[in-house]
Amino acid sequence: MRRAQFGAENGSNGEWKRQGNRFTDRISRASDSSPGEGPDDQGRWPVEPGRYRLVVSLACPWAHRSVIVRRLLGLDDAISLAVVDPIRDEQGWRFTLDPDDRDPVLGIQYLSEAYLRTDPSYDGRVTVPAIVDTVTGLVVTNDYPQITLDLSTEWVDHHQAGAPQLIPDDRAEMDQLIEEIYRDVNNGVYRCGFATEQEAYEAAYDALFARLDALEERLQGRDYLLGDTLREVDVRLFTTLVRFDAVYHGHFKANRNKLTEFPNLWAYARRLYQHEGFGETVDFDQIKRHYYVTHNTINPTGIVPKGPDPEVWTHVD
Ligand SMILES: N[C@@H](CCC(=O)N[C@@H](CS)C(=O)NCC(=O)O)C(=O)O
């Protein structure tokens, strides 16, 4: 077996299997708790503007979703944002972008401090995004798929006027797409990059590009995946597409095509990039440094590529 980036998450055939999310409490309008209290007996924390802190890395596609949705819904004042350094050290995500290397609100230097305060026996990867309670310092959730859905449904009283309805009334079609895109694209690029056997890599590569071909076709004549309205699924696809040529194409060997070579997907990704709430949340420098520096089994030299030129996202023909 070749050396794996995250060995505990590789199966016997060299395929990458992502770890589960450990903290799955929710912040919910249905919580029986009063403001300032912890979760009710069903793990539901009260919705309270100003109370929770969303901890993200701007490099991370799963965290990036929550940054975009928070912005689109106008929740910036209701839920504060903590941004970790894109480069982890042996102790993981750290707040070295802040004065004194400490998150100014939580008072911690490492995200792992909040994880261990919540579960002293936690021994999995400490991941972003995570929502941390500023009253107790406990992690409420690191369940990234649920985090963005709950920003839409549970924080509705605090959305800005005119906020997009990211979740359609009938969710069946979107949920199906979300599942396919997660498996083959969002997580598919990781399955390419973290595979440790040729066959596992090729299977992930084939599924990825088959799905991108299908999405390319789907976007013919449509502005968004579900028609003419921006939805949660568009946010989820965007955070992978925006990293594609800069990282996944080279670093994860997802290189049948570049994103720029799919006419509809490229036009769609650029349309989203230029939509309020998207482009301003993209930090290519942090994205590239995170992947190329921290995955030292894939890129032992730690050299960060200079290209591609991010200008392609904004230039006008
Ligand atoms: N919570 C999920 C998804 C979130 C995730 O993978 N975040 C990455 C950054 S993109 C992370 O925090 N990784 C920390 C690590 O690998 O130690 C997981 O456990 O895989």
From TrEMBL:
Site features described as Lowers pKa of active site Cys, chain residue numbers: 248, 291
This protein's record includes keyword Metal-binding: no
Basic and acidic residues: bias regions: 15-29
One GO CC term on file: cytoplasm
Residues that bind glutathione: 93, 125-128
PANTHER family: GLUTATHIONE S-TRANSFERASE OMEGA-LIKE 1-RELATED (PTHR32419:SF6), GLUTATHIONYL-HYDROQUINONE REDUCTASE (PTHR32419)
Name of the protein in its database record: Glutathione S-transferase family protein
UniProt organism field: Kribbella antibiotica
Upper lineage: Bacteria, Bacillati, Actinomycetota, Actinomycetes, Propionibacteriales
